[in-house]
Amino acid sequence: MPILPFSIQTLKRLPFYLSLLEDQSSEDVTSGEIARTLGLTEVQVRKDLAAISQTAGTPGRGFSRSSLIRDIKIALGYGQLDEAAIAGVGHLGTALVNFDGIKQYGLRIVVGFDIKVSKKTWISETPVYPAHDIVDVIRRLNIRLGIITVNRENAQTVCDSFVEAGIKAIWNFSPTILRVPDDVIVQNENLAASLALLSRHLKAGGHLDT
Amino acid sequence: MPILPFSIQTLKRLPFYLSLLEDQSSEDVTSGEIARTLGLTEVQVRKDLAAISQTAGTPGRGFSRSSLIRDIKIALGYGQLDEAAIAGVGHLGTALVNFDGIKQYGLRIVVGFDIKVSKKTWISETPVYPAHDIVDVIRRLNIRLGIITVNRENAQTVCDSFVEAGIKAIWNFSPTILRVPDDVIVQNENLAASLALLSRHLKAGGHLDT
DNA sequence: TAGATTGTTAATCGATTAACAATC
DNA sequence: TAGATTGTTAATCGATTAACAATC
Question: Which of A115, B120, B163, B201 could serve as a FRET partner for A185 with CA atoms 20 to 30 Å apart?
Answer without folding.
Answer: A115
